[in-house]
């Protein structure tokens, strides 16, 4: 294995690496794929030089939790996440434990499916200027972090590098066809509503989230990750106030630091101070505990 960065992230050279994303490494293993969630962290579409220890384990275990919890809404690509049940040839790589899952090979749809339940981020900026979010007209008088009457579906392109671009639902229909577009929109909204209610009862507001879908034999399934602190905005129910930017359980803490030092958001990214790294790690751990009822320390 070849070590990357200054943290735990490694490349397993004996396996067939087919894709390296910002935070995930994907290997081909026979008829299936091995998804490995690393400790890399990205901000503003740039991979940072610092890692967040055990972040990959949190993301992997939260995804596994949600894949299991939402399988009644839509099938997903997860085959196995428990390292003890992995094939023998993978068990020699202890690095994989709790940060990887074996998944089905699917043909990804070339769009990202974003559901927004609150007015924040780029959506709030657009609303202030135009009264819309991704072209969807919203009522007047909303504030930062206002809860929307109903969650809205705002798809985007899926860029291999650089920024994804928000697109209209009509444009999405042109890209993947009307039937598929309607289906993934309806599934995305159903997933969000189910997860929102579940998380809210446990002290977390899922303000928005991103889903990705793929096809196997013409059937649409949920792929990639699901409802993690990297693909979603997680806010504490206790700290929520309309009109204020709530504290978060996700990587927004690190983003806020980078904004404070006026980084130009271009590579190379600055190193994160130890305090920011440790506090970010704690936020990921807390999100895991609140959602699953389990302590992350049990898995380390």
TrEMBL record:
Q: Does the keyword Ligase apply?
A: yes
- Pfam families reported in the protein's UniProt record: SAICAR_synt
The GO molecular function terms of this record are: ATP binding; phosphoribosylaminoimidazolesuccinocarboxamide synthase activity
Q: Name one GO biological process term.
A: 'de novo' IMP biosynthetic process
For this UniProt record, the keywords arranged alphabetically read as follows: ATP-binding, Ligase, Nucleotide-binding, Purine biosynthesis
Q: Which reaction does it catalyse?
A: 5-amino-1-(5-phospho-D-ribosyl)imidazole-4-carboxylate + L-aspartate + ATP = (2S)-2-[5-amino-1-(5-phospho-beta-D-ribosyl)imidazole-4-carboxamido]succinate + ADP + phosphate + 2 H(+)
The first-level EC class reads ligase
Q: What is its EC number?
A: 6.3.2.6
**Metabolic or biological pathway, per its Swiss-Prot or TrEMBL entry:** Purine metabolism; IMP biosynthesis via de novo pathway; 5-amino-1-(5-phospho-D-ribosyl)imidazole-4-carboxamide from 5-amino-1-(5-phospho-D-ribosyl)imidazole-4-carboxylate: step 1/2
Q: Does the keyword Glycoprotein apply?
A: no
InterPro entries for the chain: SAICAR_synt/ADE2_N (IPR028923), SAICAR_synth (IPR001636), SAICAR_synthetase_CS (IPR018236)
| One GO CC annotation | cytoplasm
Q: Where is the SAICAR synthetase/ADE2 N-terminal domain?
A: 18-267
Q: What family name appears in the similarity comment?
A: Belongs to the SAICAR synthetase family.
Question: What is the protein's name according to its record?
Answer: Phosphoribosylaminoimidazole-succinocarboxamide synthase
Which species is the source of this protein? Thermotomaculum hydrothermale
Taxonomic classification, please? Bacteria, Pseudomonadati, Acidobacteriota, Holophagae, Thermotomaculales
């Amino acid at each position: 294995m070849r070590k990357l960065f200054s943290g735990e992230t490694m490349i397993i050279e004996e396996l067939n690496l087919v894709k390296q994303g910002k935070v995930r490494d994907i290997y081909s293993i026979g008829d299936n794929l091995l998804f490995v969630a690393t400790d890399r962290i990205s901000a503003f579409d740039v991979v940072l030089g610092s890692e967040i220890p055990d972040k990959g384990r949190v993301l992997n275990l939260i995804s596994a939790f949600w894949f299991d919890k939402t399988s009644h809404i839509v099938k997903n690509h997860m085959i196995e996440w428990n390292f003890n049940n992995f094939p023998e040839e993978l068990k020699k790589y202890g690095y994989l434990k709790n940060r990887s899952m074996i998944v089905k090979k699917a043909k990804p749809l070339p769009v990202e499916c974003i559901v927004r339940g609150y007015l924040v981020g780029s959506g709030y900026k657009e609303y202030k200027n135009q009264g819309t979010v991704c072209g969807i007209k919203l009522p007047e008088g909303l504030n930062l972090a206002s809860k929307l009457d109903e969650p809205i579906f705002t798809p985007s392109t899926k860029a291999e590098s650089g920024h994804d671009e928000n697109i209209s639902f009509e444009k999405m229909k042109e890209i993947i066809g009307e039937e598929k577009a309607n289906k993934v929109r309806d599934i995305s909204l159903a997933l969000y509503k189910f997860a929102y209610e579940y998380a809210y009862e446990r002290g977390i507001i899922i303000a928005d989230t991103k889903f990705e879908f793929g096809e196997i034999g013409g059937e649409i399934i949920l792929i990639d990750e699901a409802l993690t602190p990297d693909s979603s905005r997680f806010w504490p129910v206790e700290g929520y106030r309309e009109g204020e930017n709530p504290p978060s359980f996700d990587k927004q803490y690190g983003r806020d630091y980078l904004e404070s030092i006026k980084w130009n958001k271009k590579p190379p990214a600055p190193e994160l101070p130890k305090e920011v790294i440790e506090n970010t790690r704690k936020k990921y751990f807390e999100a895991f505990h609140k959602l699953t009822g389990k302590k992350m320390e049990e898995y380390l």
